């Protein structure tokens, strides 16, 4: 069953250069593979403004390329409009969740459902840890978690 209504999904992390662009690219590939990309608008954003305008971390891009996925994403900060536009804002950890809920309380017509992306993980890994200070292996772990979570999210949202 496919909904004819367009759904909107935005992964969010602290800086929008590691976890959230990986999640965005993974989700975009999944909906394209399932031939439902015309039913989804996908983007990602940051809680902070540290990296606005920057490309994803080179290790994130390398990890995605290793899985045949390209992205031209540039980091951006979550806006008030995002809370009114997106149906789902899926974040990576409790700190993101707290910050997003606080920001959403300042938005009059917030329609976004704000959740941890990890809440969809069949392996119950609730938190997607920031790989920034880690190794290539940590980026691969983030990628694998995002694949599991995004697949489960997509199945549940149909």
Automatic annotation (TrEMBL):
Its EC number is 3.1.3.2, 3.1.3.48. It is found in: Cytoplasm. It catalyses: O-phospho-L-tyrosyl-[protein] + H2O = L-tyrosyl-[protein] + phosphate; a phosphate monoester + H2O = an alcohol + phosphate. SUPFAM superfamilies: Phosphotyrosine protein phosphatases I (SSF52788). Transmembrane segments: none annotated. It is an enzyme of class 3 (hydrolase). GO terms for molecular function: acid phosphatase activity; non-membrane spanning protein tyrosine phosphatase activity. Keywords: Cytoplasm, Hydrolase, Protein phosphatase. The active site is at 19, 130 (proton donor). InterPro entries: LMW_PTPase, Ptyr_pPase, Ptyr_pPase_sf, Tyr_Pase_low_mol_wt_mml, Tyr_phospatase_low_mol_wt. Signal peptide: none annotated. It comes from the Eukaryota. Residues 12-156 form the Phosphotyrosine protein phosphatase I domain. GO terms for cellular component: cytoplasm. The keyword Cytoplasm applies. Belongs to the low molecular weight phosphotyrosine protein phosphatase family. Acts on tyrosine phosphorylated proteins, low-MW aryl phosphates and natural and synthetic acyl phosphates. This is Low molecular weight phosphotyrosine protein phosphatase. It comes from Urocolius indicus. The lineage of its organism: Eukaryota, Metazoa, Chordata, Craniata, Vertebrata. The gene is Acp1.
